[in-house]
């Protein structure tokens, strides 16, 4: 790739591989320049990364005939005060 000049500070830019995309990075101001299509690819990779970093949850079990219902886990209502406990 031919040497490129930074449009912001006129310093030389170096080609670097980041996430499967070639970006031009300025040695002086550290600006990054890349084609718009490659920016879209990096955005998709960013979204995929955030999805993979999300909370890990168990899949909902499939309801099958003959299954026993889960135990009632409804929390017991706690009184908010002594008076609420007396008249609740």
Account of the protein in words:
The chain is an alpha+beta fold and 88 residues long. The chain has a domain at 1-52: Ubiquitin-like (UB roll), CATH 3.10.20. The protein is built from two helices and four strands; from the N terminus they run ββββαα. It has helices spanning 36-53, 82-87, and strands spanning 4-5, 12-18, 21-26, 32-33. The protein has a four-stranded antiparallel beta sheet with strand order 1-2-3-4. Strand 1 (4-5) and strand 2 form a beta hairpin. It is elongated.
CATH arch. level architecture of the domain at 1-52: Roll
Structural class: alpha+beta
Work out the helicity level.
Answer: 25-40%
Q: How many DSSP helices?
A: 2
Strand content: 15-25%
Radius of gyration, Cα only, in angstroms? 29 Å
Mind summarizing the main beta sheet?
4 strands, antiparallel
Tell me, rounded to a whole number, the average pLDDT. 79
| Element string (H = helix, E = strand) | EEEEHH
Using DSSP, what is the number of strands? Answer: 4
How widely separated are the two ends?
Answer: 78 Å
Q: Which sequence of strands runs across the widest sheet? A: 1-2-3-4
Shape summary: elongated
